[in-house]
Write a structure and sequence with these properties.
The complex is a heterodimer of chains A (about 120) and B (about 425). Chain A has 2 domains: about 55 residues, no CATH class; about 60 residues, NADH:ubiquinone/plastoquinone oxidoreductase, chain 3 (Methane Monooxygenase Hydroxylase, Chain G, domain 1). Helix content of chain A is about 65%, strand content about 0%. Chain A contains 2 helices and no strands. The longest helix of chain A has about 55 residues. Chain A is flat and about 70 Å long. The relative contact order of chain A is 0.05. Chain B is mainly α and about 425 residues long. Chain B has one domain. In chain B, helix 5 packs antiparallel against helix 6, helix 11 runs antiparallel to helix 13 and helix 13 crosses helix 15. The longest helix of chain B is centred in the N-terminal third of the chain and has 38 residues. The N and C termini of chain B lie far apart (about 85 Å). The chains are: A mainly alpha (about 120), B mainly alpha (about 425).
């Protein structure tokens, strides 16, 4: 079992080396002057439809995104709790089914509340 | 996997590898066998991804071109097959700019980390009979967890660019992925409930043992996962994160040269992987109703994978892009409750099946019930919410058009001078 996770470590190396190889080849082409490297202030400026960029992009942001992040945390974690239950269902049978029904009903109450508060609509 | 398989039996490429590993273990070199098995798996996946991405660029451009009644790339090599290679060489030669105001470290780190979630997901996918790098017993959970890392990398790219378009694109990605993660997780929950295992190999074995594909039993999770996975990897019609008509190129606006190429390539690779996951979860993986006795199992899997990918290209070529409010609302108000209802339904069936200790043939009536209930649920839910025809505009008749025109008051010289003053 632990050995399998070790194999995942090999894969992380592959995942890192795939883009690294491409970037290194690109870098080497720059060394032999095939790839141009001639930066100037205008090239390195932030792109904003051709006009000069106004201020930084690191500013306060629309709170609508935050609401969806909160909703996600609540529902996703509760849903992930159902995975062990799904595997154990074959041993516990109808008893486990009624258990999960209660769990999903509680989830449903929160869902209806969020719906009534219009949290699912982009505003 | 058949223990007695000969190493030259290429219906599963695991056989020659196992032959080699067995020989190493006979010599008593267990550690070397472990390293060799890991290296072979990793090298195979790296090679597969590299070749697949080059091939997929060609497939994508040709299919999209055909949909749009063009020819697509057909000059470089036979049928334009070498076009992706030319593209890669071109991208490597291009000047790579870093924005002056951005965060340089994170800007460089994002394309480097880009491939890790993709490659790790491939690690649990069975490419053929026994051809898995690591068939984890929490495979489904692992796929979900690793898939959630992807928006993090996208956000790194968007934030470090210090560009408004990039940041908007990154923010939209987060909102989309968060909203569509939930339907995807719920629809995979249905699969786990039915098959009773989170291990991808076991999910395929269940389908093999019961002579069925999961799609026959779980039509609704299949549809939900199709839509949700499209949104999660940010492909059209859900590509608002890089909507070129609104926010230039989204989170990779500031990337140029090979770094841009990496963003482009990983999108294709992700689509291919989702195609593979489709095959595993809903279409029996490498198992195809006795065809895998004659045809190598990995060929069957690749065919299914490519069919899934082709479905995504088809969607990209034909379906218009959704607005963010439409797509978020659709996920939360339609896909999530549908998915949860389906989980309850499938759980009840499985609990009943094991409570009654019934034979596997009970799955046949379940399939019929599920298809009927799926149709009923969708129609009933749409009726309940009165979703139909809300967006259809009223058709204007010719006389109405003329009437509107005649009622517009013509601007008079007097009105113009009274309202305005001098234009200069």
């Amino acid at each position: 079992m632990l050995g399998q996770w070790g194999h995942m470590g090999f894969l992380v190396v592959v995942g890192l080396s795939l883009p690294a190889v491409a970037l290194v080849i690109s870098f080497l082409l720059g060394l032999v002057k095939i790839r141009p490297k001639d930066p100037n202030a205008i090239k390195q400026d932030t792109y904003e439809c051709g006009i000069e960029a106004e201020g930084s992009a690191w500013v306060q942001f629309h709170s609508g995104y935050y609401v969806f992040a909160l909703l996600f945390v609540v529902f996703d974690i509760e849903t992930v709790f159902l995975y062990p239950w799904a595997v154990a269902l074959r041993q516990e049978k109808l008893f486990a089914f009624v258990d999960a029904l209660l769990f999903i009903a509680i989830l449903g109450v929160g869902y209806v509340y969020a719906w009534r508060k219009r949290a699912f609509e982009w505003r | 996997m058949n223990v007695l398989a000969n190493w030259w039996d290429l219906r599963s490429l695991a056989n020659p590898v196992n032959g080699l590993l067995g020989w190493l273990r006979d010599k008593g070199w267990d550690e070397i066998a472990y390293i060799v098995s890991g290296s072979i798996g990793a090298a195979a996946i790296g090679l597969f991804l590299g070749v697949a991405m080059l091939a997929l660029i060609w497939v994508e451009r040709r299919v999209i071109a055909r949909i749009q009644i063009r020819r697509g790339p057909n000059r470089v090599g036979p049928q334009g097959l070498l076009q992706p290679v030319a593209d890669a060489i071109k991208l490597m030669q291009k000047e790579s700019l870093t924005p002056r105001l951005g965060d340089k470290w994170v800007f460089w780190l994002a394309p480097l980390l880009l491939f890790i979630p993709t490659v790790l997901t491939l690690g649990v996918v069975p490419f053929g009979d026994g051809m898995t790098v690591a068939d984890l017993n929490v495979g489904v959970l692992f796929i979900i967890a690793v898939g959630s890392v992807m928006p993090l990398v996208v956000f790194m790219a968007g934030w470090s660019s210090n560009n408004k378009y990039s940041l908007l694109g990154a923010m939209r990605t987060i909102a989309m992925v968060l909203s569509y993660e939930l339907p995807a997780v719920i629809s995979l929950l249905s699969v786990v409930v039915l098959t009773g295992s989170m291990q991808l190999g076991e999910i395929i074995n269940f389908q093999k043992d019961h002579n069925t594909w999961n799609v026959f039993l779980l039509p609704l999770p299949f549809a939900i996962y199709l839509i949700a996975s499209l949104a999660e990897i940010g492909r059209s019609p859900y590509d608002i994160a890089e909507a070129e008509s609104e926010i230039v190129a989204g989170y990779h606006t500031e990337y140029s040269g090979m770094k841009f190429g990496l963003f482009y390539a990983v999108e294709l690779a992700n689509a291919l992987i989702i195609g593979g996951l489709f095959a595993v979860f809903f279409f029996g993986g490498w198992w195809t109703y006795y065809l895998d006795v004659i045809i190598p199992s990995w060929v069957l899997f690749f065919v299914k994978m490519l069919l899934g990918y082709w479905l995504f290209v088809w969607a990209r070529g034909t379906v218009p892009r959704l607005r963010i409010d439409q797509s978020l609302k659709f996920s939360w108000q339609f896909l999530v409750p549908m998915g949860l209802l389906n989980v309850v339904l499938v759980a009840f069936e499985v609990a009943l099946w094991y409570q009654l200790d019934a034979p596997g043939i009970i799955l046949a009536p379940f399939a019929v019930i599920n298809w009927l209930l799926t149709a009923g649920l969708i129609v009933g839910y749409v009726r309940l919410l009165k979703l139909e025809h809300t967006q259809t505009p009223r058709r204007l008749t010719l006389t109405e058009d003329v009437g509107i025109v005649t009622h517009v008051p013509a601007p008079s010289a007097a009105g113009y001078s009274a309202a305005g003053g001098s234009p200069a």
